[in-house]
Specification:
Blueprint: E1 10-15, E2 20-25, E3 34-38, H1 49-55, E4 60-64, H2 80-93, E5 99-104, H3 106-117, E6 122-128, H4 140-146, H5 149-154, H6 158-168, H7 173-183, H8 188-205, E7 215-220, H9 228-239, E8 243-246, H10 253-256, H11 258-273
């Protein structure tokens, strides 16, 4: 049987007082900076399988199971602040001094929190189906609904909830199966709690954030997750950061249409070289 790309990488654990964090890294020494891939809520590192496979021979690449996700469980008291601090500690351990940060959905929240505290480590940020930090983007109604996510999720039977989440954020069979596989690892209590802390925690960390690095916004043309497309458009209009629409893709656009996303990331990286 052919090995997965992650079996060919180095799997490590980083111990914290909250729990152990599992991450994967390669040995490529060819660049002065790394590509750091951070997945979204209730997903895991395999969300970036197609990006890792595409870039790993030319770049040092890093991905993790975010705290309280996948193999980084059990993990207590998740917060974006602690996740950003622990990410910084891991990158220091791996002697990664500069990186392009690529985050899908919640992964973009972790990155923006990271940039809030450790901006000097980043040379670029690609946000994939994520939304911006900034107080003006979110209405009181938006914030109220985000705080209701956990209890509303509890209203669904477990199997129906898992399948609904996987279906809502994908539009290809491959992406659906990937998300479903990640979700089945959690109990219903875990899924609901992750959804709760994922969104309420974002509200706690959200602030006006001025980024001093190049930023690229990618969003699936069929992204039906909340108001993500609307927020991305507002982000683009307010900041001038380029917004590129990923064709035939939903919220997990980097796996629905990985070829276009890989191309967009590569072109963005090439602009940084100049």
């Amino acid at each position: 049987m052919e090995k997965s790309i992650f079996e060919m990488m180095i799997q490590k654990q980083f111990k914290t007082e909250n729990g152990n964090i599992t991450y994967w890294i390669n040995n490529c020494p060819k660049q002065d900076y790394a590509l750091v891939f951070l997945h979204g809520l209730t997903a895991d590192h395999t969300l970036f399988e197609k990006q890792i496979s595409y870039f790993e021979e030319r770049f040092k690449v890093f991905c993790w199971d975010a705290p309280a996700h996948g193999e980084s469980r059990p993990y207590l008291n998740f917060s974006y602040h602690s996740a950003a601090k622990q990410l910084k500690d891991i990158l220091e351990k791996e002697r990664i001094k500069k990186a392009v940060f690529i985050g899908q959905s919640m992964g973009g929240f972790v990155i923006q929190t990271f940039l809030k505290y450790y901006p000097d480590l980043a040379i670029g940020f690609v946000g994939i189906d994520t939304t911006p930090f900034g107080l003006s983007y979110y209405s009181n109604s938006d914030k109220w609904w985000l705080r209701q996510i956990e209890w509303m999720a509890h209203c669904y039977p477990y199997k129906a909830l898992v399948k609904a989440i996987a279906k809502s954020c994908t539009c290809t069979r491959y992406a659906y199966e990937n998300m479903l596989t990640a979700l089945w690892k959690y109990s219903k209590q875990e899924v609901c709690h992750l959804m709760g802390i994922g969104y309420s925690g974002f509200l706690e960390e959200n602030c006006d954030l001025a980024l001093e690095i190049p930023v690229l916004i990618l969003v699936g043309e069929k992204d039906r997750t909340g108001k993500v497309r609307q927020y991305c458009k507002a982000w683009n209009e307010k900041t001038g950061y380029p917004l590129h629409v990923i064709k035939n893709a939903a919220h997990n656009s980097n796996i629905d249409n990985y070829e276009q996303v890989n191309s967009e990331i590569e072109k963005f990286i090439n602009t940084l070289k100049g």
